[in-house]
Specification:
The protein is mainly α and about 260 residues long. The chain contains 12 helices and no strands. It has 2 domains: about 30 residues; about 220 residues, MetI-like (MetI-like fold). It comes from Pleomorphomonas carboxyditropha.
């Protein structure tokens, strides 16, 4: 018994060191911009860079648009699949997993082929159209994670009973989704939203090939031309991602604790 417990703790320790040692080394290296002194000069330079602010702001806005757009598509679809189209669930799950199989570069080249300047719908000729394509690409990339989060939330509640009770009181489908289903899957929606946010913030392929000033291409640009600033950016991006993960955990726990 003691041997098993010791092996478990040893495995946890090895995994923790494997994860934290490279991160600590990256953080330590980011503090060496001024020779012979540990300082946050690399962070100051990054935060003072106007391109950093503009690219991060662009990605944050695009992440919000992607989350809203994705939720507007996925929540009703997952709801009706859970309620009336359960036989289609294997097919829907297969479709939602395709972005994990098809490389992002293939998808973006398909967009460029379909919506270039010589096509019937030349979206790439306009900034707004290109941003719309980028948002669509991000929704596609986030589809597996967002759909799984929403589906898990819907399976945790009795969708059929709630729907039948609301319909007996004269509620329409839109009212049922907005006033009954959404409040009950709030934690699942937030989980999908923060996962999507983390994906959008660090995505490079779509933004680079569509030539948009997103945060991913900025990370690559800094990494190719600077020494200490890329390490600082890596630590900051890691902190943003884990902050999202932490918020998911807090919201999920509070949601479970609030249930009767």
């Amino acid at each position: 018994m003691k041997t098993n417990r010791l092996s478990h703790w040893l495995a946890i320790l090895i995994g923790t060191l494997y994860f934290l040692v490279p991160l600590a080394a990256t953080f330590e290296f980011s503090l060496r911009k001024i020779r012979g002194v540990y300082s946050f000069e690399a962070y100051r330079v990054v935060l003072a860079d106007t391109q950093f602010k503009s690219s991060l702001g662009f990605s944050v806005v695009l992440a919000v648009v992607t989350i809203v757009f994705g939720m507007a598509i996925i929540v009703p679809m997952a709801y009706f699949v859970e309620l009336r189209l359960r036989k289609l669930r294997p097919f829907i799950e297969f479709v939602t997993l395709l972005p994990l199989v098809v490389p992002a570069i293939v998808i973006v080249f398909g967009y460029l082929r379909l919506y270039n300047s010589s096509s019937i719908l030349p979206l790439t000729n306009f900034t707004l159209g290109t941003n719309f394509l980028l948002a669509c690409g991000y929704v596609t990339l986030a589809l597996p994670y967002m759909y799984r989060s929403i589906e898990t939330g819907l399976r945790s509640i009795d969708v059929r009973t709630l729907t039948e009770a609301a319909e007996s009181l004269g509620a329409s489908s839109g009212t049922i989704i907005w006033r009954i289903i959404l409040p009950n899957i709030r934690s699942a929606m937030l989980s999908g939203a923060f996962l999507t946010f983390a994906i959008v913030i660090g995505e490079f392929t779509f933004a680079s090939l569509l030539n948009r000033p997103a945060f991913g291409p900025y990370l690559q640009l800094i990494g190719a031309n600077r020494a200490y600033e890329p390490a600082a950016l890596a630590v900051m991006a890691f902190a943003i991602t884990w902050a999202c993960m932490g918020i998911i955990q807090v919201v999920s726990r509070n949601s479970v604790a609030a249930r009767p």
